[in-house]
Amino acid sequence: MLETLIVMFPLIGAIIAGMMTFGRNLEKETRLNIDRAAQWITCLGMLLSTLCSIIVFMDFINGSSSRTTELFTWLTSGTVEVSWALKVDTLTAVMMLVVTGVSTVVHVYSIGYMHHDTSIPRFMSYLSLFTFFMLMLITADNLLQLFFGWEGVGLASYLLIGFWYKKPSANAAAIKAFLVNRVGDFGFAIGIFGVFMIFDTIHLETIFTTVIDKKDVTINFLGFDLHAITVLCLLLFIGAMGKSAQLGLHTWLPDAMEGPTPVSALIHAATMVTAGVFMVARLSPLFEYSDLALTVITIIGASTAIFAATIACVQNDIKRVIAYSTCSQLGYMFFACGVSAYSAGIFHLMTHGFFKALLFLGAGSVIHAMSDEQDMRKMGGIWRMVPATYILMWIGSLALAGIWPFAGFYSKDIVLEAAWASQTIVGQYAFWTGILAAFLTAFYSWRLIFLTFHGTPRADEVTMGHVHESPKIMILPLLVLAIGAIFAGYIGYEHFVGYKNTNFWDNSIFILDQHSALEDAHHVSSWVKYLPLIVGLLGICLAYTFYIYKTDIPDHLKNAFYTFYKFLLNKWYFDELYDRVFVKPSFSFGHGFWNVIDDWIIDGLGPDGISETIKRTASKVTTLQTGYLYHYAFAMLIGVVLIITGYLFKSVG
Amino acid sequence: MSEFPILSLVTFLPIAGALFILTIRDKEPHVVERNARYVALWTSGVNFLLSLYLWFNFDSSSAAFQFVVKSEWMPILGLSYHLGVDGISILFVLLTTLLTPICVLASWESISVRIKEYMISFLVLETLMVGMFCALDLMLFYIFFEGVLIPMFLIIGIWGGARRVYSAFKLFLFTLTGSVLMLLAMFTMYFDAGTSDISKLLTHSFPASLQTWLWLAFFASFAVKIPMWPVHTWLPDAHVEAPTAGSVILAGVLLKFGGYGMLRFSLPMFPLASIDFTPLVYTLSMVAIIYTSLVALVQSDMKKLIAYSSIAHMGFVTIGVFTPTTQGVEGAIYVMLSHGVVSSALFLIVGVIYDRNHSRKIADYGGLVHRMPVYAMIFMVFTLASIGLPGTGGFIGEFLVLIGVFQINTWVATLASLGIIFSAAYMLYLYRRVIFGELTNDKLKKTFDLTPREWSLFAPLLLLTIWMGIYPSTFLDFMHVSVDSLLKQVEQAQAVATNISFAAK
């Protein structure tokens, strides 16, 4: 019952606010009232949803066991039987808390941030709609509903990235996000088909109970006989890579920053992009039986972590830095899952939700103060004018860099320790790239802080004159997140990954006995434990040296390694590559097929050729148009006559 | 047959309406026009309500033909007037009766010449379409199947755009070739089975060698109608030149003739040939999905774009029919139904702005959301349905087809799944260019949002699209038993054939 309410409140809010969008040419007063009402209703819906989530979460802390509420049948065809259902276990309860919590905060923040916007009800409606889809995703008890939520959040993301639809760049980014995600969904969908082929069901519970019987089954996929579970896991993981912006399918995430900042915080940092991690954890009973798939996840995760971190070091757009940072942190979560430390991945997901949303909303507050400027090269020297934002950004960055005692310290440490403890080669790879990425994380975080808040002001005087602290309605939500960014790691540690973890997760995550990385992570040498903290501090020092102490170093470096700098600045040229390999050829092929094959070959040989012949020989008595009609009717008549003759023949003979 | 002949009524009521319109005479032309419109609307509206009788009284636990009407027609030839529906055809009948009043209403203002004749054409068209789905006699089927094209020619040829003659001619050429072959095949079938009764033909087993030829002949006709690559080029031209309502019927109902024909004839009557030709169908369908999607991407005319997308969607139908598994066949039917709703709506959407601005060029638009927010929202919903977003009708059918064919052939499933990426590309790209951005074209600055009449066109389709996505059981439940019996029949035929070939060895 409670979970039904949790899911429905945002949907109702979205529908009501959505209907409020369509009031044109209203009095200004009325318009304002409607805006206010839309804000109230959606925020209220989210608040109620959050309260219910807290109750559900407390139930699970107190040892409640997993349950499923079936709503109604969705689809029945042969052995495909799917219902709309809400499944809640510890994993879902954790996700619910993160999703509804961050969503509520962002809803409230948006009241302040979108203050000047002309379509407030539409914005609030989209936010709530997104939350609904996200909740459907995490409560899915079958792969199809997971897919429903999956594509649904993609839709909400598309709508919100393109929220300011006047901007061509926003529209382009929105389409790009949807399409790159669809590439992932393509893999996901085929994965679902494969699961159905092997298990004859797409119901999660049934899959999990029968997986042990299928662990050695092979599948014939594209002509090859392969280990079934590996193939399925890899296909499903393609979906996760798309949604969670992992290396190769990451290109949409930085562009997604075209959307309003609250959207970046909610969807492109705290919740939607973590859906891939959630999926892997949710399907842990499946992934556990494929070492190859886990290895691939570890490699992709670790590579993304370092790859995105390198790019974040040279970006100038404040939101893009944080976006690449998100990409990098998602990499951490994935390699945690890859070494079977799913709960560590989810733990990092949870803490990251707090501090990354905090960073984004903080950045939003900065952008708000700087009259919508996002380029850090045009900021600087404003920390005294926006003290609250400044302190909050520090808290977020400390948490992100994994400095004790902030949340990121606990979660990033356990992730890295688990990688080390897994004792595999890819585990080592993940650990060392993770350490390097941690160093870069601290560096780019403080680069951001120093460039944004310190040094001499680089903005023009008009902008500087307008710099102001954000209103309470924006700062208050940040405080909530800051509390999470400070304490969530310490509070959650024992339950999520410490000695209470088996009780806490209660079968919602499955790990084979031989995959003991998480267990062993608690017994690694002390240098492994302290290394992340040390490199984090070193990163901060380096940033201080570069951007406060000797500010000419970055320029020297840039000139010395110009090619490398360009390479990073242009994001390893992924966009250019894809444009050349996929986008342009698609259009060329489209033109080619159309002009050459359709128009020239098919029509040329067929109708047009015949038409030429007919035209040359046709009499001028009838006009063409009626002529065809008569021809046709005549042909039909002949046909009827023929049939009748045939029948006659038959009945006589 | 003491039962109330509901099928005859649903089939021929429109003709009665058309005859009534013929009798309308008045000195004032506008009175005639007004009356013609209202008679057409009332007739088709009432006919829709009548067809709901079928919906509520259909026994979905039986695979037999229901509401059967049968009477001797030309007894000496063994021909009979024989109508009936089963779980495969009933929903198509309802789709037709739903779309016709919508078409009449869509033409309310946009058609301004020869209104009387136009309305008559549409009503006749409805009779022929409904008759096609209900016909249980070969002869009757042929008449309806081919007869449909006559009013369609007229609608395109008289009320169409600038190149209407060329388009009508193209349509004529393609379909004629197919139908001549189909006619010969029907002729042969009658010789072999000694009956023209479809329900008897369904249980007759044709010799394997003959099946091959019959299958090919029918395929020639159906492939054009669907249309399949490479005989698809008539469709974009026909759509471009047809008036809005003509496109709606063309995409909504006529495109389903081929798929329906395959389910009614090719698969159950020539099961062995169907197996043999499955690779051919798969290949053409996959080419269609990928090829036409790419072509759709580069179109500059909205109607052409949607026409090409229709061909891609129909690729899923042909794959699904020839899986032939429960999911594949039910999915194929579902794709046809949802495409009937969604593509109709998309053509209506183009019609709305065409009526206002007299252009179908994508480049002439942009930024419509500023003037037409409600329109933009409705367009978005149908765009999403067209790209198969879960929760809309478009998703269910494609999902079922793909999950069905994956069990048979992973290559086909994988390549066809590429369609889900492409469809998103061309539809969202279209939407962006028409709806989003700044409103720069001065002509558009006075454009107004949907009128109540236009709203009433979209409301039922909107409702259906969501309903079909959230609770598809309503519709799938109609099909289950009929599809099962169809598949059993195919299976048995194949089993028998295998035994014979074993015995021969």
Key terms for this structure?
heterodimer, A: 653 residues, mainly alpha, two-stranded antiparallel ribbon, two-stranded antiparallel sheet, 28 helices, 4% strand, B: 505 residues, 19 helices, 2 strands, globular
Structure description:
Chain A has 28 helices and four strands. Mean pLDDT of chain A is 87; it is low at 618-627. Helix content of chain A is 73%, strand content 4%. Chain A has 653 residues and is mainly alpha-helical. Chain B is mainly alpha-helical and 505 residues long. Chain B contains 19 helices and two strands. In chain B, strands 1-2 form a two-stranded antiparallel ribbon. In chain B, β1 and β2 form a beta hairpin. The radius of gyration of chain B is 22 Å and the shape is globular. The relative contact order of chain B is 0.09. At the A-B interface, β1, α5, α6, α26 and α27 of A face α5, α6, α7, α12 and α14 of B.
Tell me briefly what this model is.
The complex is a heterodimer of chains A (653) and B (505). Chain A contains 28 helices and 4 strands.
